[in-house]
């Protein structure tokens, strides 16, 4: 299915006070909106994903899976600044007739949500039955539930947080240091900063997995002195992102993640979370070193109508994309019974 494009031909004001002269949003929809518009499932994607959720979240979304187009009207929109159909640093600035590159204005999670609210209005979606996302997607979903509590009925936050941590910001700054160490980033060409992007992705991958993951999947089978499996894996994954993304979008999106603070201008995080009216499921991953389980436990304690599930995953932070059968069991248990204010027993959902 091809990406659809929504064009907003008015100036789009950002939280910083700066403007984009126009805005395009790439998005996918699957299924059919029912008569009373009560079957909307809106997915907020993570850092380098795209709007084709049936492609990258197989096992949870798609024909025969929990969220399927036969029952649900599934919407996923590409985020502002990303490389897959929405206005981004490689888009042409109408004022200069040249791509923005590093002159793209800084923006925040709230700006991403503001853009998606425009798309929801365009699609005639007044109420979202289920809003969900993992990681950066969870940060967006949380913001939306605070900005428009009456629009969101059910909220699912996976491996995410209320405010990006100093630990997470340090990882992102290290990646931007790798990007800026590649002098071609400043050449203002579509493939500028490619070597830096490869190194940045290698850094990021260490936070997406963990010690146990690498010990099992990248353990040496011989007594080689060079050409280690773990080294080859880092190079492969770095180049894989270079082949499908760009350094400029990556630069800005890591800054966007750093900006996440649900309490900014709202009398603090706890006051902001207290305004959420959606029935909420918070899912944490015990082996996640980037978004530690304590961050999801905090969300659970502060959001009024919340349930918590703590899942074991061998894959660390990436577990929410891989362990989809366990996710399905957790989510189905949440919707089958009234478990708000409780910790979901994973033994009973297996």
TrEMBL record:
It is found in: Cytoplasm. It is an enzyme of class 2 (transferase). Pfam families: Abhydrolase_1 (PF00561). SUPFAM superfamilies: alpha/beta-Hydrolases. Homodimer. It comes from the Bacteria. Residues 40-321 form the AB hydrolase-1 domain. It catalyses: L-homoserine + acetyl-CoA = O-acetyl-L-homoserine + CoA. Transfers an acetyl group from acetyl-CoA to L-homoserine, forming acetyl-L-homoserine. InterPro entries: AB_hydrolase_1 (IPR000073), AB_hydrolase_fold (IPR029058), HAT_MetX-like (IPR008220). This is Homoserine O-acetyltransferase. Its main location: cytoplasm. Transmembrane segments: none annotated. One of its GO terms (cellular component) is cytoplasm.
């Amino acid at each position: 299915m091809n990406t659809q494009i929504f064009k907003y031909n008015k100036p789009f004001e950002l939280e910083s006070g700066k403007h984009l002269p126009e805005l395009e949003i790439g998005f996918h929809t699957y299924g059919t909106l029912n008569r009373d518009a009560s079957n909307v499932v809106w997915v907020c994607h993570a850092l380098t994903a795209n709007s084709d959720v049936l492609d990258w979240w197989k096992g949870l979304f798609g024909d025969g899976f929990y969220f399927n187009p036969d029952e649900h009207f599934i919407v996923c929109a590409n985020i502002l600044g990303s490389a897959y159909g929405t206005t981004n640093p490689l888009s042409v600035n109408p004022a200069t007739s040249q791509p923005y590159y590093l002159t793209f204005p800084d923006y925040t999670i709230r700006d991403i949500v503001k853009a998606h609210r425009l798309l929801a209005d365009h699609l005639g979606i007044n109420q979202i039955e289920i809003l969900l996302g993992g990681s950066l997607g969870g940060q967006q979903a949380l913001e939306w539930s605070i900005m428009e509590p009456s629009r969101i009925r059910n909220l699912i936050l996976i491996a995410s947080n209320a405010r990006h941590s100093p630990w997470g910001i340090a990882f992102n700054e290290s990646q931007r240091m790798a990007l800026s160490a590649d002098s071609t980033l400043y050449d203002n060409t579509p493939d500028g900063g490619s070597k830096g992007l490869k190194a940045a992705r290698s850094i990021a991958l260490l936070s997406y997995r963990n010690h146990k993951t690498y010990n099992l999947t990248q353990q040496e089978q011989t007594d080689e002195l060079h050409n280690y499996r773990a080294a080859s894996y880092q190079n492969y994954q770095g180049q894989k992102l270079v082949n499908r993304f760009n350094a400029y979008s990556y630069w800005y999106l890591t800054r966007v993640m750093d900006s996440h603070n649900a309490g900014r201008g709202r009398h603090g995080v706890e006051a902001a979370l207290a305004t959420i009216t959606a029935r909420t499921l918070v899912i944490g991953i015990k082996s996640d070193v980037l978004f530690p389980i304590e961050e999801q436990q905090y969300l659970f304690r502060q959001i009024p109508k919340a349930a918590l599930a703590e899942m074991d995953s061998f894959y660390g932070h990436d577990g929410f994309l891989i362990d989809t059968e366990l996710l399905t069991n957790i989510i189905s248990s949440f919707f089958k019974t009234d478990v708000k204010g409780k910790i979901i027993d994973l033994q009973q959902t297996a």
